[in-house]
Amino acid sequence: MRINVVSDVHGRADALAKAGVGADALICLGDLVLFIDYADTSQGIFPDLFGHERADEYIRLRTEKRFDEARALSAVLWAELGGDPREHIEKAVRAQYADLFAAMPVPSYLTYGNVDVPSLWADYVRPGQTVLDGETAEIGGLTFGFVGGGLQTRYRTSYEVPDEVYAAKVAALGPVDVLCTHIPPAIPDLLYDVVAKRFERGSEATLDYIRTYQPRYALFGHVHQPLAARTRIGRTECLNVGHFRGRGTPFTLDL
């Protein structure tokens, strides 16, 4: 059985349409939405609304960890635009989801990323696209467990949950052959982004789960340019499947 796996799609509907070629199924580990592209500030919801120069400024403030100033800038821009910011964002997110779910091959198994909006997915999921979060699925005779979203951070992305809520989703899985999450287990080398030069948050609950149940694989994304893309915990091979927006090609898992 061959499974292609993607994460951090961030608007790449063009590449997503081809991501299932040669595979029996596609797994998507979330972050479908592109709010802002740190590598190309002309791309994403923020620059579409406010222009790439404002996007440059916003990214600079966040990169320098001047989060209060970044939020103040954002507040000024939204006030200048007028209307309810949530309506502007939802309209843009819906447009992206319409393209992405239409492009996504079937069969596919999906969970949410930390920048996704779970409440909107039901409007776009097609037959053959199965959404799971804190749930399992049998694929080719193996049990796959899925946990979506991220943990709470100062970045305040759209689908961050408290640690105890995330841990409960992990605990609900029971033993699986393949663990599929958006964020990595809490191992420093897997969490450090060498381009952004910062640590992302990982899950202690996921790390404890891997040590306890020893699935064959633990698959994740979230960290776009990790210091280490893979490591081993006992018999479990932990794999960052790659930044799909940047690579445009899936990770292939032969089972």
UniProtKB/TrEMBL annotation:
Every copy of the Calcineurin-like phosphoesterase domain together lies at 1-226
The family database entries (InterPro entries) matched by this protein are listed as:
Calcineurin-like_PHP, Metallo-depent_PP-like
Can you provide one Gene Ontology molecular function annotated for this UniProt record? hydrolase activity
Q: Name one Pfam family in it.
A: Metallophos
In terms of SUPFAM superfamilies, this protein maps to: Metallo-dependent phosphatases (SSF56300)
Task: Provide the protein name.
Answer: Metallophosphoesterase
Organism, scientific name: Herbidospora galbida
